[in-house]
Model the fold of this input.
Amino acid sequence: MFNLFKNDEKNQPADVKAARAAILKAVKQELQKAEGGEGRNIRGIDLFIAAPDSEKHVYEAAVYADEPGRFKNEVQKIADDYALDLPSTWTLETSHLAELPLEAIRIKGADAALFIRTRDNTIKKSATAFINVLSGEAEQKTYQIDSGGGKINIGRDKNVQTADGFFRLNQIAFPGEINNNINKYISRQHAHIEWNNDTGSFMLYADEGGVPPGNKIKVRAGASEVLNKLISTQIGHRLDEGDQVILGEGAVIVFTYKEPQKAKP
Done:
């Protein structure tokens, strides 16, 4: 498998111990940055691995995949050495992906990356925003979303049955039975938006149908026009004014805090 972040063969760990050492070294470097009690703001650590299938077993052994909790204990020892006072509820998640998320920190010497989830000490805020549908055909052209409204699901059709047998309600729904080719490339469980009290912002997350190899999600930032792909369900994108989101092959929605102007009578 071609790895966009692999510079040369030296990037590959020679064995299990080398892979484990590279990952723990990166964890140590990142945790060292949490000083003055900042460790208690760490909610969890996400470890992403994008190794070829032929080397997947190396990384699974490196993180003790068959011994739940052991690798987390190794990380906890590092935190204790620096008296970081991690909260008792902190989590460690490991995911195997085709490519590494843009927001994650690349680990030198391994096909892996880290993402530290933190809680900012900010005052809780509230907000109202709007989702405008530019391409594709949703049930509405404009949706109002509120910070107190809970999770806003996005997908094809309004009420859909998931793999576990339960039904999911898509508040932003693109009907699948209409004559619109764009809609058919939107997954039933494509994405969702939720409010983050810690950062005072709306966050966009990919759901199971919105990550590779399924139908994808791309975001072009409104201010910087930087293009970002959501390739993990764990790392969200902070929505800012003017962000455009492509769902599947051509459905486009735009995020804004500006209330749409009402048509004059």
In short: The first helix runs from residue 16 to 31. DSSP finds three helices and 17 strands in the chain. The first strand starts at residue 42 and ends at 49. The CA atoms of residues 207 and 229 lie 13 Å apart.
